[in-house]
Amino acid sequence: MLLCGASGVPAAKVVILGAGIAGANACKVAVGIGARVSILDIVPERLSYLHDITQGHITTFMSNRMTVAEEIADADLVIGSVLIPGAHAPKLVSREMLKRMRPVQPSSTFRWIREGVLRRPVPRPTRTPPTSRRESFTIV
């Protein structure tokens, strides 16, 4: 699967957790290359703004545990861009949610999930590369 799709190939589904500056920029890039984009946040004004500037080419959701689980279940790419100033990133994605994600073909696509949004980050020895493979996705 290609992020942008091609003739006879559907575009990838990109789910963005957080509609701040980083999430908005990720959204603009994903829409620009032709991906199907869903973005979740807790601020309705921010979601409305992104819906307007992308001319309705995205799907917006108020973020809660149920919508996060439903949206990432069939995502090809999950981007975590949630930040609370002065605090650790909230753990939005649990191991159970990751297990419910549909399997993908490793040769054709990967899922990238930033460890900061995982409820229980995978312990990593200090001398390993910054990515690790778990089930059918890659944690960076």
How would you describe the overall organization of this protein?
The protein has a four-stranded parallel beta sheet with strand order 3-2-1-4, sandwiched between helices. A three-stranded mixed beta sheet has the order 5-7-6, with no helix packed on it. With 140 residues, it is α/β, with parallel strands linked by helices. It has a single domain, classed as NAD(P)-binding Rossmann-like Domain (Rossmann fold, 3-Layer(aba) Sandwich).
How do the helices and strands line up, and which of them pair or pack?
Layout: E1 13-17, H1 21-32, E2 36-41, H2 44-53, E3 58-62, H3 65-73, E4 77-80, H4 95-99, E5 112-113, E6 132-134, E7 137-139
Parallel strand pairs: 1-2, 1-4, 2-3, 5-7
Antiparallel strand pairs: 6-7
| Major β-sheet profile | 4 strands, parallel
> Helix- and strand-based class?
alpha/beta
Strand line-up of the largest beta sheet: 3-2-1-4
Number of strands: 7
State the helical fraction: 25-40%
The outline comes out as globular
Instruction: Give the averaged pLDDT, no decimals.
Output: 79
Spell the H/E element sequence: EHEHEHEHEEE
Find the CATH topology.
Rossmann fold
CATH architecture: 3-Layer(aba) Sandwich
Total of DSSP H or I helical runs spanning 4+ residues: 4
Which segments are poorly predicted (pLDDT under 50) over 5 or more consecutive residues? Answer: 105-115
CATH superfamily: NAD(P)-binding Rossmann-like Domain
For the CA atoms, what is the radius of gyration?
A: 15 Å
Distance between the termini: 20 Å
Oligomer status: single chain
